[in-house]
Amino acid sequence: QTVPEELQNGGGFGYVVAFRPLGTVSWMQTVVASPDAARYVFRNESLPPFSPYEVKVGVYNNKGEGSFSPVTVVYSAEEEPTRAPTTVLARSISASDVEVSWAPPWENQHKGRIQGYEVRCWRHDEKEENAKRIRTVGNQTSTKVSNLRGNALYHLAVRAYNTAGTGPSSAAVNVTTKKPLSRSCQTSPCQVFVQIYQAQPFYFIFFPRGSSQWNRESSTSVIETNKTSVELSLPFDEDYIIEIKPFSDGGDGSSSEQIRIPKISNAYARGSGSSTSSACTLSALSTIMISLTARSSL
Hints:
Elements: E1 14-21, E2 28-32, E3 52-61, E4 64-68, E5 72-75, E6 86-92, E7 98-103, E8 116-123, E9 132-135, E10 142-145, E11 153-162, E12 165-166, E13 173-176, E14 183-187, E15 191-196, E16 202-206, H1 213-218, E17 222-225, E18 229-233, E19 240-248, E20 251-252, E21 259-261, H2 266-269, E22 287-296
Parallel strand pairs: 15-22
Antiparallel strand pairs: 1-2, 1-3, 3-4, 3-5, 6-7, 7-10, 8-9, 8-11, 11-12, 11-13, 14-15, 16-17, 16-19, 18-22, 19-20, 19-21
């Protein structure tokens, strides 16, 4: 930063720039005669990229030299990396996420400091210049690419970067995201119709005891099945809420609407003539049948 005129204390004001390669003893000096100058460029064609230098700046006027600033370390400009990352691998972890990993360029085969890596990801029917770009920082050699389309072919490539720019790209690798799980659910007191798209009909069956939040969290039971119906034997004198959730390799689907099964009294079980409004009750033993109809649809 330049020195304000009121602090220059005389005419003939200017700057003395002193610098030396880091680790050396002798200072090189140059004079910048303009009091408004705020920069000095040292040119040396043999200077290696990103070379560290110690620098200090002093002042002078017609009466003599003033003090120097504290010493600071600056670097010459760097070159972009000249080698591409190697061993790029990609795998689908869900219908919308892909994990990609790579190895750094060989240290003895590239110039330029590496600040991080840039991952480019584009769908097979897209142009590469429109690729999604994700940047990592430092030595990180893996990342996750999210918000992708399910069951789609993607290309991924990685390149190193620094302040000078990005280096050459690795060869592209291909990965196909997992099939998505879509569904629409309709419920009636006894039957749930689940429509799924290109996924196996596996389901979670939930029957939490009671409807309060604390009871729901503490007493939820889970049944996993690949069948389209399940028989549940429930205790007497308790209400039940049943939910059905589909899942596949692409992830979990959302739950169906809640199906409430009213409690069955002991009196009804003994044949006292009491009635219940549940159309799902098959016998006085409080056994119910939940039927699921799954059908593929394009």
